[in-house]
Amino acid sequence: MFTLANALGETPKPSASHARAALRDHRPFPLPGRPSAQPSDDHWNEILLTLDVAFQPIVNIHTGACYGYEALLRNTTEAGFESIADFFDTCHALGVLIDVEMALREKAVVKFLHMEHWRQSKLFLNLDNRGLELEGDLPARTRKMLERYGIEESQVVFEISEQHPIGQPNHAAAIFNHYKRNNFRLAVDDFGTGFSGLQLLYFAAPDFLKIDRFFVSDIASDSKKKLFLSQIVNIAHLLGVVVLAEGVETEREYFVCKDIGCDLIQGYLVQRPDRDMAQMQPHYDHIERLSRRERRVAVSDQKLIADQIAAIDPIHLDSTMEEVFERFRADKSVTFFPVVDAAGEPVGIVRETELKDYTYSLYGKALISNKTLGRRLKDFVTRCPMADINTRAEHILQAYSAVEKSEGIIIVDDMKYAGFLSAHSLLRVINEKNLAAARDQNPLTKLAGNNLIHEYVSEALGAADCEYVLAYFDFDNFKPFNDKYGFRLGDRAILLFAELLAKALPRDTCFPAHVGGDDFFGGFRRTDFDEALRVSANLCASFSRDVESFYDDETRRLGHIVGQDRVGNIVRFPLMTVSAAIVHLPVGRHVYSVDDVSQLIAELKKEAKKSPDHVASAALICPSN
């Protein structure tokens, strides 16, 4: 009989023609629980020996800590199959898919154990939907197999997708619940590739949502993808689901996924799939460096949130119901407790109200405490909105507001339970943030003011490993306009530009600000210089076009205002425009001061006012030796 222990030994690999011949004859796999009387058993043993498993890390987007590893099948071509899909299609056609899945799971588990840090990691395994049948009882068989290797069921995450039909929703939901009853985690894989993904999310009630590479690819320059992904992330977080972005390959994709609120990432930017387990790291320093670099300039609410979260001692998922009742009895002021698993990760909350049917029943407590007939804590756990401690307060408020009768938000740090943010505490966070923002905003335009501009420029100059573009906008011929039409219309012109600036420079990657009067500032990060130059030029052109409506018909016809200069001479002033001085801060630049930037901007402003397109630019680079 075939066993995985034998399969992992040294045996010659089969030829492709050898494997195809076995398939053509429809010979059965000699797998655990199956007879192996036919001579072709050795062929199938050799096929399974040829197959290998590669692993790809899944890391925390904020810290770079490795959360888990996805097991990916390899060597199917060497085993005589056209592709991975062809291999599983063949197994399904021969009626051995479930047994093959079990063999491959064990193969992945054995390799997973080769890592020193496996106890702190999750193992992500792909499920073929065609094997989702209760008759095979894959969850129970997998649980027994894991027990032999000493792996907790909660360490294993099964990925389901729309690659093959799920079947009737109610039937599928029953199968998913069966996996959960066996303490496994579920992830919806390749979300966004099919047309019924939302139904799968609804019925599976997964712990993780893996966003397909389609929505991640080139997302930094695709506003429609940003919109879709941000809404998907919001929905997932409202359901207490962790969001994982697949196929992250570039820094720009990483930063957008982080800004939108993804929790985990997987892709070539972190590490390519590798069969050598020695290459699997517990922490990926380059991801942490990216996150730190971003935090230098990003508005962080971490301290505000940390000061307000309540450190409610959670209940562990494996606690007995007697222990749960005792917690509520000991602290009568608490109406719910967060619930965490063995790894300290939150799974939801347990409410006192949902236990009342048992606590007030004559035999309720005895019934629920009966280990044979009674229900366990996981049967009473309710999903709760969850947010990372690095999440912006506005996003947390949005998640809270969308859930009726929510007690608050579970806060996690590096995917571990950190505390609970109640509605009252959340309002205090928002209030304190608004007060702090009001102190640093321009009172007219509500854009960031001088203090924040100085901080932004200082941080940009200190981050020599990151590209920035700084833009200074100055109105041309604003004083003659203000003298002729009055300060109210002058304020309207200032507000017009502020609105155009805020729209052209989205806050997730840019920094729109108001220096004061008719002077504005814009900062670009994670935006290449040519794109920043294009946006700035279009902004200048849009304002010049739109502001013409503020003039009377006669002045627009003449194209100028007749007025006095500073010494009283009668002159003609052209219609109002805006000039832009653009400073490029490339990667690897020399260390410059704020005064260096201010001096260069002053020179560029003079040049821009003489330029036909009212734009002048220069780069601050490392001086040549």
How do the helices and strands line up, and which of them pair or pack?
Layout: H1 4-7, H2 16-24, H3 41-50, E1 52-60, E2 66-74, H4 84-93, H5 97-112, E3 122-126, H6 138-149, E4 156-160, H7 169-181, E5 185-191, H8 197-204, E6 208-211, H9 213-216, H10 223-238, E7 242-245, H11 251-260, E8 264-265, H12 285-295, H13 302-308, E9 315-316, H14 321-330, E10 336-340, E11 346-351, H15 356-359, H16 364-369, E12 386-388, H17 393-401, E13 408-413, E14 416-422, H18 423-439, H19 450-462, E15 468-476, H20 478-485, H21 487-504, E16 510-516, E17 519-525, H22 529-546, H23 553-558, E18 560-564, E19 570-574, E20 577-585, H24 594-610, E21 615-619
Helix pairs in contact: 5-6, 7-8, 10-17, 17-18, 20-21, 21-22
Keywords:
Alpha-Beta Plaits, alpha/beta, GGDEF_dom, elongated, cyclic-guanylate-specific phosphodiesterase activity, EAL_dom, 625 residues, EAL_sf, TIM Barrel, CBS-domain, CBS domain, 8-stranded mixed barrel, 3 domains, disordered N terminus
Compact overview of the structure:
This protein is an alpha/beta fold and 625 residues long.
Give structural notes.
The chain contains 24 helices and 21 strands. Mean pLDDT is 83; it is low at 1-39. Helices cover 41% and strands 19% of the residues. It is an alpha/beta fold and 625 residues long. α24 links the parallel β20 and β21. It has three domains: 40-283, TIM Barrel (Alpha-Beta Barrel), CATH 3.20.20.450; 308-432, CBS-domain; 443-619, Alpha-Beta Plaits (2-Layer Sandwich), CATH 3.30.70. The strands form five sheets. The protein has an eight-stranded mixed β-barrel with strand order 1-2-3-4-5-6-7-8, surrounded by five helices.
